[in-house]
Structures
1.
Amino acid sequence: MPHTTLTLGGMAGQGLVTISDLLLKLLARAGYHLLATQDYMSRVRGGHNFIQIGIDADRIFAPQPIINILVALDSRSIDEHRHELTAGSIVLHDSDNKPPDINGVRFAGVPMNRFANKAGNPVYANAVALGAIAALLEIGMKGVDSLLNEHFGKKGEAAVEKNVAAAHAGYDHIAKYYAETTSSLPPVKQKTRMLINGAQAIGLGMMTGGLRFISAYPMSPSTSIFNYVTASAAELGILSEQAEDEIAAVNMALGASAAGVRTAVTTSGGGLDLMAEGISLAGVAETPIVIANIMRPGPATGLPTRTGQEDLNLVLNIGHGEFPRFVFAPGTAEEAFYTAIHAMNLADKYQAPVFLLGDQQLVDSYVTLDRLNITKVRIKEHLADPAKVPAPYQRYRITPNGVSPRLPYGTPGVRVMYDSHLHEEDGHITENADIVRAMVEKRFRKLKGMVKETGKPIWYGNKKPAITLACWGTSYGASREAVDALNRAGIKAGMAHFNRLAPFPSREARVLLANKKHVHTVEGNFTGQLAQLLARETGIHSGMPVTRYDGRPITARHIIDKLKEVHGNGKFKRISL
Amino acid sequence: MPHTTLTLGGMAGQGLVTISDLLLKLLARAGYHLLATQDYMSRVRGGHNFIQIGIDADRIFAPQPIINILVALDSRSIDEHRHELTAGSIVLHDSDNKPPDINGVRFAGVPMNRFANKAGNPVYANAVALGAIAALLEIGMKGVDSLLNEHFGKKGEAAVEKNVAAAHAGYDHIAKYYAETTSSLPPVKQKTRMLINGAQAIGLGMMTGGLRFISAYPMSPSTSIFNYVTASAAELGILSEQAEDEIAAVNMALGASAAGVRTAVTTSGGGLDLMAEGISLAGVAETPIVIANIMRPGPATGLPTRTGQEDLNLVLNIGHGEFPRFVFAPGTAEEAFYTAIHAMNLADKYQAPVFLLGDQQLVDSYVTLDRLNITKVRIKEHLADPAKVPAPYQRYRITPNGVSPRLPYGTPGVRVMYDSHLHEEDGHITENADIVRAMVEKRFRKLKGMVKETGKPIWYGNKKPAITLACWGTSYGASREAVDALNRAGIKAGMAHFNRLAPFPSREARVLLANKKHVHTVEGNFTGQLAQLLARETGIHSGMPVTRYDGRPITARHIIDKLKEVHGNGKFKRISL
Amino acid sequence: MGNSNAFHYEGEKAWCPGCGDFAILNAVEKALIHAGKKPEEVLTVSGIGQAAKLPHYLKSNGFNGLHGRALPPAFGAKAANHHLTVIVTSGDGDMYGEGGNHFIHAIRRNIEMTVIVHDNQVYGLTKGQASPTSDKGMKTKLQPEGVILTPFNPLAVAIALDAPFVARSFSKEIDFTADLIEQAMRYGGFALIDVLQPCVSFNKVNTYQWYQQRAYRLGPEHDPTDRAKALAKAFEWDSGIPLGVIYKNPRPGYVATVIGDTEPLLKRKVNTEKINSLLARLY
Amino acid sequence: MGNSNAFHYEGEKAWCPGCGDFAILNAVEKALIHAGKKPEEVLTVSGIGQAAKLPHYLKSNGFNGLHGRALPPAFGAKAANHHLTVIVTSGDGDMYGEGGNHFIHAIRRNIEMTVIVHDNQVYGLTKGQASPTSDKGMKTKLQPEGVILTPFNPLAVAIALDAPFVARSFSKEIDFTADLIEQAMRYGGFALIDVLQPCVSFNKVNTYQWYQQRAYRLGPEHDPTDRAKALAKAFEWDSGIPLGVIYKNPRPGYVATVIGDTEPLLKRKVNTEKINSLLARLY
Ligand SMILES: Cc1ncc(C[n+]2csc(CCOP(=O)(O)OP(=O)(O)O)c2C)c(N)n1
Ligand SMILES: Cc1ncc(C[n+]2csc(CCOP(=O)(O)OP(=O)(O)O)c2C)c(N)n1
Ligand code: SF4
Ligand code: SF4
Ligand SMILES: [Mg+2]
Ligand SMILES: [Mg+2]
């Protein structure tokens, strides 16, 4: 069943983020499940940004194409979202901005700026809005009061009081003039839920997985991970370095990795391109590294602050020459957390580059969770024991499983040589054809172990479906909601979610998909990159992929609409979304 | 039938190249068909380098794993090539270096250094060797004399005389002491043949195709193309610029291209990685550019002076985001010449990046040809006619075939905007979802035209084969010789050669391959990249690819050996190679 | 300016109100008009950043390329058609951070173009990280303990590389900046103008006031052809920031040296005879 | 040296006979032995080029990375284990061409390491193209009319960036070079030594003799802490090339400032309690 969606819209710099941060905390503490997706422009002031907050008693997996409550901080916000308003939608606006007339839509005007000025400063408009929203959602002011206390406490009592006064003014105004417009949320278990976004989840996962060194160059939408880790770096004994460019970032991390510490870099498409040669170096020099590539629509500068899934083919093939790699694309913040831990471990275990593919939607969206379980996390030490390594030490010793014992620089009595050429077992340059062949084969023997590791595709939905979706990364959420909607409407639907994309779990994919009819991949790109991968790795030639390539997140409605195009309207009639 | 192979071996800096240049010219002018492959180490002096020259009355397509005549400028050369010598092989060596005893091999010692010193300088050893070779091949001294005159004429009469004297000393010594060791070459039509290597072919093709601006950063094995073009740049009105790095190289070329001239860059794997973001820019800014990527084995520094075909997946996917591109991989110097012309034209016609994939084997190998035909080459002007362009001018005008009229900077009355973001038709930044979608679709509409262009796969050999090879780039030569050998032995064999790999000629590939049994791709890599592409694009899951990944060129013998591994020894018994 | 200004773009500009970038755009327009340029003769090239949006806000030819990569395409375009007046507009991160290597080598290459760096000592577009020119101690999300790297001194490096024309301005001084731009366009070589540009959203250290208090115009007593003196001026900062032409060392530029008075590449056609003569050498 | 030299690599070296690289390797060994270092304590990092082969020819830890990218991994390794003595060996193309941006910013970052540039004013490994330091007029296959770009002056740029230790040597002067390397290792900051190194195969202009005629040792009258004088020395070239420490401006390095006297990153373990406290903040 569709949940309540509340959209906050306004200009960059108008305080959207403050309102939404407070509102989300308020609702998470009240026990609601939330999903907040952000849509912002590549500018610092002005323009139109918005945040859509889904509110429900159960977990929410994808944004909705409709709005139940629109909080419009400026009048442009009403124009921009007009097409998402339906009969019964409520628009909260500053009563000084005359709203247009829209059929069936109810308007609640609050003199936000006037109230704010009365409280002493235009910035209190945020608090007015918050109070008004609390009234519209019928959640009372107790939570708001204590949150404002907590949030503005550092700024002194006066600040708290004024914010509280402003919030109450907003609340009272709605209660007084729009009592019939308010609508209550579904009942929920009163418990405080964790509120986390994908950037925090990935950063936490990396840190839990033993990250010691991170280097990056700022680039949207990856910077939020780098910011989050940097904020806690000193406390956790991690070194964070802003590099002069992405080439430096990746090569710094490789040096640190050769010295024996766990490293990661964060970037996005264009920055990843610049890291390509360094990734290739990680391949031949067998240097562990985790590369978080947070996708935005490309090519080149593309749409810097939007979401997309265009870089799968790129990470599968980036870097010249051939070498094994892991590629993961978790579907949710929760999965991203655990995947980031695995990524750190696997990079070390296989001495190979590990990609973590996310996108703007993943890192910028807040979601509620009950908890993240770190009690079972084991950080296995994969550095070799110097006492057990055969002498003389050889960095690239040829072994049956392809993994050579790795010792850090500075190990007593040992010489450790990392090399970018084809090399002998001890790392010395070689051009000898036999050694070259043996080294290539050694490196690729790692795949036997890698393919058995975590990240197998997951099935969801009906076991004997008439329609099957296949998704990766954040297309998971919308696919899941679409599958639910289809099943609710009596159309048997199921889906396979791919987190690990390299080494591709071909056997498992075949088991899940080979005998299914009407398999459609769901992807945020134009060419259907998972569909290509399935064809290549499993021989499964899926049907027309469900794609989206305008920089916006995929919704269940988008999927259903595309399916209608392929399968005709008929049986999709009963679908409620 | 196997042709005569003569291998020149010695240290870097010992003059191998001089001898081979002279010898090749000599034989080409005498009407022989030649194929000279170079094998050299990543060093300037010392080590072991060699050049293998195949000599025949017919065209030669691949090097041989055996040697008929070994010219050993140092004694290491004999050790290095010992395993390629067979009964009847002749070894020409300096008689001051005692050769080992090798069963059935005949040795011809000439006091090369002593003769050279007698002529006045150790450098004349090259001429001594040349004379001795002329004697061994029974081709007389007339050609040698005139060639030395031509070659050393600039250095003055004394230089010519001394070289001639040295050459005659070498010739006479063989004639006198080893008359029974010499063996004549097959009879040929006495006509002067063109002698060309792949670097010259590509460079000439680019220049014929209208190249005006080339920028590059030196990197083996691509530098020889850049050298060749630079040498004639002033004469042809071309600007050649050595950039500070590959990122600069590609971005310089894009600037020049936006200004309306035809541009190319040359590089190899690691340098290509660095160009990735620029290539992505070419994609979204729709800027024509030809990128010659000359492969060497990777990853990272890999084997800098060796050959390999590891970058197919890379060029198919390089650059973040999605955009159409051409990828060509010609099989021979002749094909490379025409493909380079097409590449220049197609980049301009479709305003898209065009890749020319070559490898060390292609660019460094000399081959004889009758002629290159430029009379039919038409350089169509693809810049728009300002008079015919609808006003206001829009650089990214949305058109049915996806191609927008392109005007150069400086066109009177017109504003030309190239942009790296998603943009409106006039090039202005946009974040509008509808425009974004329309622009992505416009760009991809180009594929409809692109797929119809030149470069369809070519069939060679038996039409109803029991064994089918599929090759791309330089694996063409060895595949062709293998197919000939198989057919000679009564095993029906055929092959499909893929020059254009993107947009992939799927329909044609299916027609050629879908109904064939035992299809094996032949590739200079470990993972079988053409095999993957065939699976993805046509659903054809070919058999075990024939691969080579030790940096050495593929030979027909190598292919047959691998086929034996798969199909058993039995029917391959009769093969003569 | 309004209608009489053919370069003026009327559309919305995505800069923050009060940003120094507006004034730089204004100065560029003024310089172009004063120099009598037509829009079709001018090409502005940029990388990515707030500063780098400028080509979109000027009605003229533009190349808005990649972050850090303004100089290479500017070189390529100028080389292909040396009749173009090429202006590069870039940020401090774009030019001295991501693009640092091109900065060095473009100075060495010395092609005739004007390079304007909007130096706000911060990464504006990506929301306030330290840039190469950020002052020590500045705190940001990525430098929570404050910047510890020694700031990049663009003027000193340019003079060390013997750049032919090195100047500094302050965005607020529109006419002064316009005049420097005009001098640079006329100069006949690689001309660098580093413009102090307050970022009102993210740089709370180097504000209008901060610059205002320190910036002063070089008087006629400064001899920009004296390299040692120029370097001394380039090193001035906290106690006073000189504006004007800091260093000058005129010499022929790339176009003058390599391309000369010939037809632009753009106009040249393939000469089949010459191709044939290359082919003939292969026999 | 022979047996008493734990750093000595006996295998073949792929350099041309007579190449200046041999002497630099010799100087590195001498400095390490004289400073009492053990091979396990030392890490040499390089990019790609002839110079960059050095780590393979020294029995010690090595990282032979990518062309132009010697400095970033050197930084990473030193940051991860600051007990290592890190030496970077690189060519003029590697360091000032492909790697120019890292050169600038590594100086700003000022981590404690010794950077030796084998400056042969040419691309040796790729057979003789112009490098950033090639003299004007030098002809190569890619510069058939001779180099026209102004040579990169590494010393002047380093001083303009206020690098803490800037020196020059000549490969032939092995003991002198060894002594500079030892000073640099002890210095406590980013220490640059640009070593003139004849390439006997490709640089026919700047030969042993050419350097010999011009190189002279700075006497005690040179005050390396005087920036203006140091710059003047850095600009000397055709008529005399000063050898020795050109510039010195001691200040705490990156390790001293950021990492301090703590355990190396390498020894630190994940603290579950702290992770839990981060998680707790999300409620
Ligand atoms: C390869 C790449 N890396 C990073 C980015 C993200 N990015 C865009 S602008 C910018 C910095 C802008 O700073 P500056 O050049 O000083 O310009 P300003 O916004 O301050 O005017 C960065 C890091 C990018 N677009 N491309
Ligand atoms: C990305 C990349 N581009 C180009 C090359 C080719 N390359 C290897 S070494 C070198 C130049 C070496 O010159 P320098 O650094 O001066 O070292 P030298 O050989 O002179 O000691 C080049 C261009 C490469 N290996 N990688
Ligand atoms: S963020 Fe700073 S530089 Fe960017 S537009 Fe705003 S004020 Fe200007
Ligand atoms: S080419 Fe030059 S730099 Fe390289 S080893 Fe030979 S002499 Fe030394
Ligand atoms: Mg800035
Ligand atoms: Mg060099």
2.
Amino acid sequence: MGLETAFADEPAFVPYLAAGDPNYEASIEYVEALAKGGADAIELGLPFSEPIAEGTTIQNAIVRSLESGMTPERFLGFVADLDVDVPLVCMTYYNLIYQYGESDSETASGETASQEGPRPFVEKAAEVGLEGFVVPDLPAEEAGPLRDACDEFGLDLVFIVAPTTTEERLERMREQVSGYVYVQARLGVTGARDDVDDATEESLARITDWDVPKAVGFGIKTGDHAERIVGAGADGVIVGSALVDIVAEGYENGDPTGEVAARLEALARELKAGALRGARTRPQPERT
Amino acid sequence: MGLETAFADEPAFVPYLAAGDPNYEASIEYVEALAKGGADAIELGLPFSEPIAEGTTIQNAIVRSLESGMTPERFLGFVADLDVDVPLVCMTYYNLIYQYGESDSETASGETASQEGPRPFVEKAAEVGLEGFVVPDLPAEEAGPLRDACDEFGLDLVFIVAPTTTEERLERMREQVSGYVYVQARLGVTGARDDVDDATEESLARITDWDVPKAVGFGIKTGDHAERIVGAGADGVIVGSALVDIVAEGYENGDPTGEVAARLEALARELKAGALRGARTRPQPERT
Amino acid sequence: MSTEDAHDPKFGEYGGQFVPEALMPAIEELADAYERYVLDNEDGFMNEFRSRLADFGGRPTPLQYADQLSERYDTDVYLKREDLLHGGAHKLNNALGQVLLAKYMGKERIIAETGAGQHGTATAMAAAHLDMPCEIYMGETDIARQRPNVFRMKINGSEVVPVTVGRGTLKEAISETMREWATTVENTHYVIGSVVGPHPFPKMVRDFQAVISEEAREQAIEKTGGLPTDVVACAGGGSNTMGTFAEFVPDEDVALHAVEAGGSSLQVDEEEGVAPNSATLSTGDEGVLHGARTKLLQDSDGQIMESHSVSAGLDYAGVGPELAHLVDEGRVTPVNVDDDLALEAFHRLSQDEGIIPALETAHAFGYVEKYHDDLGDTVVVNVSGRGDKDLETVIEETTERDLDIAPDMSILQRMGGGL
Amino acid sequence: MSTEDAHDPKFGEYGGQFVPEALMPAIEELADAYERYVLDNEDGFMNEFRSRLADFGGRPTPLQYADQLSERYDTDVYLKREDLLHGGAHKLNNALGQVLLAKYMGKERIIAETGAGQHGTATAMAAAHLDMPCEIYMGETDIARQRPNVFRMKINGSEVVPVTVGRGTLKEAISETMREWATTVENTHYVIGSVVGPHPFPKMVRDFQAVISEEAREQAIEKTGGLPTDVVACAGGGSNTMGTFAEFVPDEDVALHAVEAGGSSLQVDEEEGVAPNSATLSTGDEGVLHGARTKLLQDSDGQIMESHSVSAGLDYAGVGPELAHLVDEGRVTPVNVDDDLALEAFHRLSQDEGIIPALETAHAFGYVEKYHDDLGDTVVVNVSGRGDKDLETVIEETTERDLDIAPDMSILQRMGGGL
Ligand SMILES: Cc1ncc(COP(=O)(O)O)c(C=O)c1O
Ligand SMILES: Cc1ncc(COP(=O)(O)O)c(C=O)c1O
């Protein structure tokens, strides 16, 4: 299938949730609700104990997920259990991918790490039907082994372009990116914001001639944001914290899973609608 | 009269009390009780805020006396008020004697100190009938001005010989001492003890040929102590803390002044009796 | 400084730059500044740095012959007195270097993480000295156990930002500072506190700290006529370790001992994700954390464990990549010392030598106590810091343990209250 | 060292030996030892002393140019960094000298008094270093307000003996230590903590501390090409003052400023016998205390007053006799700084220069702040100690006063507890 297909016909809405937040069953329902709400692809967070690129909202989601017992192994089962027919992307940190091949050996034993690297995890990811990876702490310079494994198993590797990314680094990413490029709308970490940053348009302008879809994320919260961003030329919007907020609130209030799922679906619809509105305010993006 | 007369006929008993402990009136009664009990001379403490030669017992007496309002001026009145016919010695620290001449000028004013030194206080002391001084923080080297004033007004200046005093310093003291020499029975500060120190005999031996009476103090508590010390060759015993203990106990228990005075008188009798017994165990001290 | 290629972000398989894209330009800019100012002394940077280290920091620090310990172990023990550096630990060497570098780079603001609070206080002092606004991120657990250092940072005019995630120790504080950096990267420099993090931090911090071994090596030759047989330093992140070892690395005959915190046990609790120690070099395995590939305390999934040590400054699940590399190469011997032994060593140095060491430092002396038979005849131990910050912890932990060597503290308990 | 007659126990009309007879032989023995070992370097005493001061103590301490203060006052301000000495104050110069001297004299035991606890900790460190049993007398009030230092003394293996007489501050502690000395004089040396007490203490302590001005004078010449116009030091007993001034006394053009604690007011309460300050040089008059004739805070009867200062180390009703003499001679100018100004200066130095000074030291900077217009163009200020010991006091006193310059401490209050 390939991640690019998600952006083929119209601006894509790409939601993020941490898998297993706040528990396995509810999380399955929530992800499926996003699909029903119009998601074109879904980023599923595999929680890592040191999520250095996340703001408080997603950090807390990760803590809930870890506490409910999420592990890389269960994550793969989670993906397999999902009943959605949009492409799924694994968003996680490199150490988990890297350690997966090690998972049977005693750690804390002083043994030399195996040289397998990311390959075993990518292989399993392909088996359960994941389409790609976003790894925020893996810059292009260090991505070789993961890129190779993804190629081997037919998965995409998404890179993040930041407002501060230099031209030189853009080139390095362009060579390696596939699926879509994740345009970071502002500096900082993930988290819902009340406005849209000007940096977005500038960033989009810098990569306008890239031949992968451009999805913008970081801080998008409402349909209006989505509209503005697509209007500015994005091929899609990535929304995480605003959705995670709904999960967190439901969890704190002890709301029934079905109700929370319905709220997620509703926000998904709003965001997707916003993206579609945005598409009308500008010439349809062209594939080169 | 002269302090030496107190030692003339038989071993002398010389008690110490802090004047004004725990208050003016009671203290008058206590001192008079000591005279009745057989004191041959009395050391009256004029309390100084930094009594560096005193142990806890006398420190506390000094605090009580200061808190009850004792001052150098009142001390002179106290001496005048006493109805006793034994010689009285003022035991105090040099700063009080030294400052007396200054007492009218503003202190804390940065004025240069007057050059009068100890003379004004000695003059007043003579007027009220004091016979001499013991000043524990005034060694022979610094005693010149006080010695001169004492000579002028006919008072004695007692020096303390310690177990550690060198031969050279003994000579210096011998030149200046008058009234009696205070033989410190042990190292340290004042305070009642349960034994008699061997240092006493050694100290006495070193000054056996001095032509002033030798009174031993520091730690003497019972008639038996007094007996041993006089037996060892002393011309008299000085007893402070053991008596002050009685004052302190009476004060703490709120005992009637008369009762406390009776106890002081009783201990004085015991000590005097001990001294007399001691005299029988050795050849009568000879005046040279 | 060192013969390796300054451009290479790796030490063997360790090191690298595993950071969010938003930070990449900043660390590239930093790598560039490191090469220009630190390695090539552009604009006389290193001259100013060394001169401020001397006048403000109090360098050189002495290499002191330890009379009592030498007698006790029947070997010549020399103490490298980093505890005398301004602020009370080796940390200022690095903090001053980085804050000054930030100034040369035109940055307007400093952020830093801190564990024991020593790096935080050093950074706060350097920032005050060089007139830079400064914010320090510190885990809540560490705030509670290193209060005097929190006061000091505030008094030096820094903000102290409590980090409440996780167990609230150094690991969380670093993560949080990286997040903050990602938000403010354009005008802000992140003064990392040890030889950890993405390139160029491990090299740069080592170079700032290498003044320790530069001096110690010269002083040892001057005092003993030759090189020491052994050099001992405690290792948390590894900055005092690398600083103490750096100039001795080429001296193959000098044995280098990195002493980690053995905590209460070397056994890990996989279920809880807790290692009751911080013995990363001895027991950890390879992984990626805080921007670098290095040895880590992690569970079989790759989740980072909560480490533990009685000394907050060693309490870290990672370690400098260069140190991991030197251990794999066999050049550095990793050893560890548990909480009890460290506390005993704390009291021994205090009573026998009149130097109250930091609890971190005490680990190095615990090692010498236990293994002095294996050491040669001239041992240099780095006194990485002083123990004023640890008094409260020491009293608590000593009372719990009832160590023979500990003084009777009842005068203070009688008088009630905390420190 | 100095040109005066070392045998003369007097400085003009001040000084002398006003002690109980039992102590006279000890101070004569000490005077003899002072002449032989300190003045005549018998058995290489001074060489060993200087070498231990360097290696154990961390000498020389830097003379640092203060960037921010120099700009603020538009004059060159140099800081003599005694805060970097081992233990955190100039006190070690003297403590190490005396404990070493006691060893040369064959004494087996050390006693000392302490006010701020700085002299006590310095003595405890020196005693541990030189393997001498040690007991420290400290007033109960001071124990309560300088707790970290009490811990440090205990941890260094010294006994701390609480003095409960009077207000329980330095004055009482000195009296009590003198009493203890009188009891154990044969095998015990009393390490007095400042240039006070009977001869030879004022001269000997000054000579041990004179290393400060020896270095500072040389460093000033090296850094500025000449002598400073002004030298400023705080004065409690006067040991850092005399140490900082000693070598400059013959340089008649160098103005010497001794900054005393003005406390809350210069007015005394005769009724209560309390001076709410410790401004002995400015407001005291001549008398005899603790073995010497000197300037004192006393009432019209000659009773010694309770002094007061926010800084325990300046809180003393007497002052060194040599300083009193130099003031009468016009060579030293006595000035004073009140609690508020000292606290402000504490925060200013911390925030502007990255140096947290002792509260004692802060008085010297309070003076420079207030009177910088009267100072010349090169001012040397002695940073007599660091402020770690004062954090608790500073927080309390700052909160009470609501000073503009103080940082917001709420993060710590929120977290509760003491230091
Ligand atoms: C005194 C001291 N020593 C050692 C360390 C450990 O750090 P590193 O291993 O980076 O030197 C610390 C950290 O806070 C410290 O304060
Ligand atoms: C840091 C510091 N400075 C100054 C003083 C005052 O003492 P002196 O006047 O003897 O130097 C003290 C006394 O404790 C002190 O600790």
